[in-house]
Amino acid sequence: MKKFDFVRHPTLGRGRVMKHEDWSTSIWWLGSQMAKILYADEDIAIITNPAEQQDLLKQILVEQGGQAVQKGFGMHLGGDPELFITTGAGDLLPAFRYLPNKAEPLMNNPHYANTKVFWDGYQAEFTFDSDTCLSYVTDKIRGGLVSALDAARAFDPSAKLTYQSVFDVDLESLANENPEHIELGCSPSKNAYRLPPVVADGRDLPFRTSGAHLHFGLAGRIEKLAHNSRGLVRWLDATLGIISVSLFQGMEDRRRRFLYGRAGEFRLPKHGLEYRVLSSAMLAHPALVNLCYDIARCVVETIPVYGSHSSMFWTPPNVKRVQKIINELDVEDAQRVLKENSKGLSFILDRLYSNRTKGLTALIMDGAQATLDLSSMENNWLIDDEKDWEGHAGSEGSCVRMAFSADTTRIE
To answer: Which segments of the chain have a pLDDT < 50?
Structure first.
């Protein structure tokens, strides 16, 4: 028997093979409300009929309250976030004024020496070593933010972080800048809907954008991923992509998706998958980083396992509707999809955070702006008072579990 096989036993009935985090094996027998360990039994038969498999999975999902959704723990997570930094008055500070280039990055973060910070045109960008622990990933993202802001404040003491993902740039100033500073640095991405990349001349583009790119280490599955990557990215769009439109309502600018972050945008680096749809709005608060990564790795781990059966816990809209919701930031339709999949959303949130589902659902549906205080990224990331940030995202508000309790729907 293999992981997730559907099985039948003459006495125990029907069930599903499960592997646990301690590598033990058991079978969840439908109706028993428990998983019994059976390493070998000649009376156990594998169910191969697709219709019966689908029916059994649906019943198990209901009975387990969503436990069949995989959490994705153990997967390496990384990123190369981009963001803008402004003056105290809110004017854009071009990153090439205060950061080195990518070939000679800033590496002065005292906690995470491998966090590399550099300019990518007008945006600040940083990379960090991947980790299987999302709390450490959050620490590393904070480290990148601290390093970028320290460099900016050395240039302008009033500098501050912003999650704003689109800034206007004066065409006259573009005409006088060094070519390497105004070129659009990102190489073309792949698209899950096979749309061609949009190519623009940096001198003629009167705005710049920033994104939060999520990386997933999928060692041992790269060859298989190459053949199924578009399907997996479409699932990410249908879940996290649509969730993000509601979650970041009022925080984003649809002009970003003229060039970058369109529905279906991804790359296949050597380590696995890079999902490029989310904007820098995710960086507004560490709990938002935590939530987006958690949902993403849950989807990346679950969809390849369940394949066509995944529609049992989430019914994706047709691809045209998904693209329209994401590319046009259609909050109303995004929320209609989430209501249509309210049970699936609860399955995912229950699996990830158990008794925080009510508060997190309100966060997603009402939007982060209505639920969290996003007036200062420095306050949210505890940047100006270093002693308040506890490693492993252990500070108040530094991750979903530290920010939301079973009875809390708003962070005071």
So the answer is: 21-22, 39, 66, 407-412
Prediction pTM value: 0.85
Name the token pair of 211: 């994104």
Among candidate residues 397, 399, 400, the one with its CA nearest the CA of residue 412: 397
Closest CA to 75 of 264, 399, 307, 298: 298
Share of the chain above pLDDT 70, in %: 82
Neighbours of 292 (CB within 10 A): 22
Residue-wise pLDDT for 132-171, tens only, equals: 999 999 999 999 999 999 999 999 999 999 999 999 999 8
Task: Tell me the domains of the chain and their CATH numbers.
Answer: 6-61 (no CATH), 76-403 (3.30.590)
235 within 8 A of 303, measured Cβ to Cβ: yes
Contact 264, 193 (CB under 8 A): yes
Residue 148 token pair: 């970028």
Q: In this predicted structure, what is the pLDDT of residue 226? A: 59
Phi, psi for 80 (deg, rounded to 5): -140, 70
Q: In sequence order, which residues have a C-beta less than 8 Å from that of residue 242 and are 6 or more positions away? A: 317, 322, 325, 326, 334, 337, 338
| Dist. CA 14–CA 30, nearest whole Å | 6
